[in-house]
Amino acid sequence: MRARRLSELVELMQPAPVEVLGDDAVVGPDVVLDNRHVTPGALFVAIPGERVDGHDFAPDAAQAGAAAVLGTRLTEASLPHLLVEESVSGLSWLARGIVREARAGGMRSLGVTGSSGKTSTKDLLAQVLEAEGPTVAPVGSQNNEIGVPLTACRVDDDTRFLVSEMGARGVGHIEWLTSLVGLDVGVVLNVGAAHVGEFGGVAQTARAKAEIISGLTADGWAVLNADSPACRDMASLTSARLAWFGEGGLPRGEMQVFARDVACNESSQPRFTLMARRGEMEEQAPVELQVIGRHQVSNALAAAAAALAVGMDIATVAERLSAAQPRSSWRMELMRLREDRLVLNDAYNANPESMAAALRTASELAMVQRQRHPGARLIAVLGDMLELGSMTTAHHTAMGRLAADLEVDELLAVGEHAPVLAAAAVEAGTRARVATREEAAELRLEAGDVLLVKGSRGIGLEQVAAAVAENVGEEQS
């Protein structure tokens, strides 16, 4: 946000009840939750947590240069305070006010949701929009009740586009997030099994994801995946204009965005012809993605459709997609190590759809590697996929079988559900064993080997990828 006086923030946060204690200080531009990230003039938001209370760190924030504290009580920091009933709610009201003001000035607000691919698509979309003007997008995966408003608070007078990534744990969550940022474009990537244990079923998941488009006006755009039956069914839930994206047959809508002549290079980076159709007019432009994996084509099409919806031309969209780099760590991150050894680090999170995509990408990389190194192995370290409820055993069994179908040479399963995963792989004909994270970190790769590391965030398998890469470096030294 631009620097403002506390009295201005109170006005922005209406109708939330806010009390100012202390001087009418000027705060901004930064809004921070962590005292270690405080910049001069920052507004420090004190949020109570399960283990620590942000209010206790307000004096440290003051020492680092914060100008004021937003919280639920007076702290020991010698700073002006904005007191609210609940800290996260207060942050949300601030975000609402900032975005409402910016949209009145012409800023466009875009939101992305889906069971998988949200962060990758958000990163692609942000880099495309940056060609048109200043763009604010989440850092990493800030997609919850704290991350969405915190991202929105970075909007200032120059911002042309706000991109929000929206996750959910149940019905009503995305509806609330959209109330903060007032979307002009809502994107639904897919509906899968991610968090199905918390949602209560795929139908409930679809209902929750559809909230990103249900509040759009007739002037807005609903960008939907035509390759997902659940997304197709959402068309009736919005009054917005429809932009379909996909690789199969696309329903009628005001815009259709699709890919032709898809192929991947030896690093599994896709290239294709981007197609856009509006009525009888059809345009095309070549795209060569820098991100890894065949599944990124769908993400790129979603980003393209959203960018075209806000008025960008197809040539610029294709050019920016081709230049876009991975921005978020541990998501299809390919490390090329000594003697052509590859580590595909996709350890940030996992669900059945994303794990299947990662396995297929690793298999494609291994096929190329074996042409140069006939003895090259495909090794997978796979961790638990969490929050799958009653479908947990079935999905881990399916991943073990898929690993065998894709000719994984050795599978190390880590986590509570590792025995199920490993047993299914062994039964299907692949070498597999249960391992601890520490045991997996001791892997030694040989020339040409491909290692996939994939699991839910709580398993912490990014440590395995880093350790194996370090092992290769130690061998070299």
UniProtKB/TrEMBL annotation:
An annotated GO BP: cell division
Transmembrane domains' residue ranges: none
UniProt cross-references to Pfam families, sorted A to Z: Mur_ligase, Mur_ligase_C, Mur_ligase_M
Residues reported in the UniProt entry to bind ATP: 114-120
Keyword Cytoplasm on entry: yes
GO cellular component: cytoplasm
Protein keywords: ATP-binding, Cell cycle, Cell division, Cell shape, Cell wall biogenesis/degradation, Cytoplasm, Ligase, Nucleotide-binding, Peptidoglycan synthesis
Sequence ranges assigned to domain Mur ligase central in this UniProt record: 112-307
Mur ligase N-terminal catalytic domain segment(s): 33-74
EC number: 6.3.2.10
Enzyme class: ligase
Domain Mur ligase C-terminal: start-end pairs: 331-457
Pathway(s) where this gene product acts: Cell wall biogenesis; peptidoglycan biosynthesis
Swiss-Prot/TrEMBL catalytic activity: D-alanyl-D-alanine + UDP-N-acetyl-alpha-D-muramoyl-L-alanyl-gamma-D-glutamyl-meso-2,6-diaminopimelate + ATP = UDP-N-acetyl-alpha-D-muramoyl-L-alanyl-gamma-D-glutamyl-meso-2,6-diaminopimeloyl-D-alanyl-D-alanine + ADP + phosphate + H(+)
Keyword Transmembrane: no
Location in the cell: Cytoplasm
GO molecular function terms noted in the UniProt entry: ATP binding; UDP-N-acetylmuramoyl-tripeptide-D-alanyl-D-alanine ligase activity; UDP-N-acetylmuramoylalanyl-D-glutamyl-2,6-diaminopimelate-D-alanyl-D-alanine ligase activity
Function comment: Involved in cell wall formation. Catalyzes the final step in the synthesis of UDP-N-acetylmuramoyl-pentapeptide, the precursor of murein.
PANTHER family: UDP-N-ACETYLMURAMOYL-TRIPEPTIDE--D-ALANYL-D-ALANINE LIGASE
NCBIfam families, sorted: murF
UniProt similarity note: Belongs to the MurCDEF family. MurF subfamily.
Annotated protein name in UniProt: UDP-N-acetylmuramoyl-tripeptide--D-alanyl-D-alanine ligase
